[in-house]
What does this fold into?
Amino acid sequence: MQVNGEYKPTIVAFCCNWCSYAGADLSGTNRLTYPDNVKIIRIPCSCRLNPMFILRAFQRGADGVILCGCHPGDCHYTTGNYYARRRMTLLFSMLDFLGIERERTRVEWVSAAEGAKFAATMNEFTAQVAKLGENKRLEDLRCKK
Amino acid sequence: MQEVMKKALELLQNGTVSRILGWKTGDFFYDLTPAVFESAEEVEKDFVFSPFCGANLSKYLIKESRKEGKIAVFLKPCDSYSFVQLLKEHRIIRDNVYVVGVACDGMCDIEKMKELGVKGVTAVREDGENLVCETLYGEKTVARKDALLERCVSCKSKKVVMFDEMLGENGEENPESHRFDKVAELEAMTPDERFAFWQNELSRCIRCNACRNVCPACSCEKCVFDNANSGIANKAAVTSFEEQNFHIIRAFHVASRCTDCGECSRVCPQHIPLHLLNRKFIKDINELYGEYQAGADMDTKPPLMNFTKDDCEPSIVHERGGDK
Amino acid sequence: MQRIGVFVCWCGSNIAATVDVHKVAETLAKEPGVVFSTNYQYMCSQAGQEMIQEAIHTHKLTGVVICSCSPRMHEGTFRKTCAAAGLNPYMVEIANIREQCSWIHKDMAEATEKAVILGRAAIAKVHLNAPLTAGTSPVTKRALVIGGGIAGIQTALDIADAGYEVDIVEKKPTIGGKMTQIDKTFPTLDCAACILTPKMVDAAQNEKIHIYSYSEVESVKGFVGNFHVTIRKKARFVDETKCTGCGDCTTKCPQKNVPNEFNLGMDNRRAIYIPFAQAVPKIATIDADYCTMLKTGKCGICSKVCAAGAIDYQQKDQLVEEEYGAIVVATGFDPISVEKFDEYAYSQSPDVVTSLEFERLMNAAGPTNGTLLRPSDKTHPHTLVFVQCVGSRCDGDGRGKSYCSKICCMYTAKHAMLCREKYPDTDVYVFYIDVRTPGKNFDEFYRRAVEEYGVHYIKGQVGKVVPENGKLKVQASDLLSNEQIHIDADMVILAAAIEPDKSARPLATMLTASMDTNDFFTEAHPKLRPVESPTAGIFLSGACQGPKDIPETVAQASAAAAKVLGLLAKDNLTCNPCVAQPDEMMCNGCSSCEKVCPYGAITYSDKEFRGPNRTTLIRRVASVNPAVCQGCGACTVACPSGAMDLKGFSNKQIMAEVDAICK
It folds into this structure.
């Protein structure tokens, strides 16, 4: 949506319950701001993120999707983020292969202690996606309201 | 070619198996279809082995190997990779299958032949490097190499990886297949060019599901796109993204399990080069996680069900892309 | 259709100052399925909770959405509130409008709009929620301790003292572990055997403890509370029930040239042996690699001299199956091989020894009966050089370990001190990177070595050791005075780094317990759960988790025992209901999910299904053990057909949230 002449993108952030979701909470506790375009969905682990969810978000009009999980080696379930890392690498590479702007997808490892990193990441990612403007290549136009 | 039919007869007659999985003629001579033969009479009547036997028979064994009695199957090199991959996934009951490996010089693409002016083919025989075709319009000769299916032009392996018996000499893997050339060519384009390329290709998709139905890796009891609980079980060819979504998910689901048999592209009625999506994943896996060939063995873990602690980060996609 | 109640919390002004809570409640009231929507100052207060409960009754709510602080804060509270009002606790969803909304946004309109969207997503999810019930699984009230060193013994004794059965599996013929080889212990210098052997005897005599010596764990199946373990009792060719431990056989055996591992190969034992006098159990063992009878069928002397008739050359490995509720790993450590550090001439001179070998050379029960003699010529050494950090804190070259082995500074101070005390005519040098002595009375101990015993501590590295004319030429640097030093030493003692026992890695695989890159077992939380493995029901005791000295090992061993007791005291375990669940009708049986499960929670079985035309089909399908599954969801993505889904975070639920947000 356009707000004051600037494009305001919709960003979906999938956050693992144990690290990044807590990191997001921490950035709130510390009153570190990031744009309200970012909406967080809590998942138990980064390995729960099914590529279908990302495509669905794009299909329904999201402009950017970011996955945040525990740092490699720190997964609450010991190995989940390693699988997530491979899956997302391949998926993003495929999206890029189909000509979809690679700047619309991202994975960032944010621990429960990194409130500042969470906020900074969201600020940066939102700005990056805003620059690209509306996601036209991935949208399912039937879903537009 | 007679040798294959003879073997089928022999296996039935000596009681090794009670059924044969092979090919028979469909609506046209060049339109072969997989079939199960239960008697010598059926084999003699319908069994065919010709340069049009592109169809990969492995997938049919999921159901056939669960039936009563043993079945013999003829596997070309590329089919044997699918066979091993399915075995690895516990989909085929090995004890119920007798595998006859058949050497392969590449299978033919009727579309290519039509472009070469060979239409209405009614019979074909091999003559050295050439195929001599009887057609409705008289005899025509084409060089085999000009008539090959795309996947056979860049054949990755002439080696049957698992068999009980081999007909003809088993071949070797071919590391010089150049099968990733087209993928590399696309990678070198700008994102806009790539988008245009794929929009042009995928917008032709009619969601007939032929690619899915033929794919040996797409052998789910029930496809996720048919599963009401998956959240994506809808099918309507209205906008472009619906198709992209389908093909991305499909390629993702077979990633690290796809043996690159090329059946998806062979059967696509719209001639969408779907194998390029699979090859993109294979190329990425080879480059990022080490060379991996699905179906080459029984033990290795598929790369997507594996990891190392120092795998590359997803940002490599951005870094590799540079400023393109 | 669900009947959903929405409760918007002000959190005083924490939320209400930036989010228009009235507007949020009003807007969400119009969402489909919402039959009641309200706002209140403090939803988590007694009054707030009662308001929720009353609404559940009055409006017959089937789902509740609370727009409040983070679920990490009060999800548990609100679940309990609703459960008390008769609503399934898993029919509650929290929209996080404080930490992730009101606290980060300043503009009221924006924050309010976002709060509405977050509320919508929670409502969309609740629509698809289903009541979940936490299952229970029974607990087998028996523990297994793997490894019978001081860690394992202490853990077993503590568990047994509390009244529970416990088995120790020890791969060597005797329990006791590394501590049996140690002479004196720092910082008190009491004799290791004097404090260890009574514990070994206690363990043997405790009727709740069963010791499987000369045995190894063969396989582990099951899960917390219900482990099924196969133990391989290796053939020792001696009937345990008959052997009296008299030792006659060990003196008559003609095969005298077997390197004695107890003394690290510095002397020999017989082919039939009892490792040392205080071994527990005190039963002879035949070393099949050296026994003439077992190798050629000719000899049989031990059988002839055994009055008890305990020798059994036909004995075979025996597999024992046992059930346990908890497993404690106490596999301990080993010094690394110093072969890669050949600059210290270990392979060239017998007078270059490791610290553990030095321990044996000082020990009254050792190869020299406690008199310190050079291994090469059995003379009394005058100059001794101790080299610290051989393979510890060693980066990059791949020879050693990056970590600090922790115990070497102290035992080297001990060795140096004992040396100077027993043999005042010796010169003792210690080369170190840093001297690390944190611990009760540790630094005092080290200071005594330097100040009272005159040990020469030199900060610097030994460059090389060259054996020459019966001496060891030591070239080193003194970093503090910046000088090159040359010492003609009689003995060089290497403080080899310690590493986890080699059996740890395959064991970790069997237990599905995680390890770090150094093969130390990983704890569930480095600070708050230091004696538990992330895998439920697996506990860690001693040096298998990281380098430790004896007091630390014993403390951790008792801590692990306390955790085990906490588990064994329960009759049933409550499981997390948000676990994976496969749809058997759609399952391919492909094992993709099984390959990514970190807990081994997924198993496969062939099941009969009804096919078309009254036929039956046998299909291989997955099943998830809800007591083992921790609900990470890795399997749900590995599953291509979507047969595997995660309760509480199902595909449909997450998609619904995505849709609500992207609308």
Remarks:
- The beta strands of chain A are 2-3, 6-7, 11-16, 38-43, 64-69, 105-109.
- Chain A touches chain C at residues 10, 12, 17, 21-22, 24-29, 31-34, 36, 39-45, 47-53, 56-57, 60-62, 76-80, 83, 87, 119, 145 (CB under 8 Å).
- The mean pLDDT of chain A is 90.
